Amino acid sequence: MAISPADPTSLRKRAIRDHADRYAPERQGWIARNRFFHDQDLAYLRFLIPAGKRVLELGCATGDLLAALEPSRGVGVDLSQVCIDEARARFPGLEFHTGDIEAPATLDAIEGPFDFILLADTIGDLEDVERSLSLLHRLCDADTRLVIVYHSPLWAPVLKTAEALGFKMPATPKNWLRPSDIEALLGLADFDPIRSEMRMLSPKRLLGLGGLLNRYVATLPLVRALCLRNFVVAQSLPKRRETVPHSVSVVIPARNERGNIEPAIQRLPRFAEDMEVIFVEGHSQDGTWEEMQRVRDAYPDWDIKCMQQTGKGKADAVWMGFDAARGDILMILDADLTVPPEDLPKFWRALTTGKGDFINGSRLVYPMQDGAMQTLNFFANHAFSIIFSFLLNQRFTDTLCGTKVISRRHYAVLKENRSYFGDFDPFGDFDLIFGAVKQNLKVVEVPIRYASRSYGETQISRFRHGVLLLRMVLFAYRKLKAF
Question: Per CATH, which fold does 244-481 belong to?
Answer without folding.
Answer: Spore Coat Polysaccharide Biosynthesis Protein SpsA; Chain A (3.90.550)
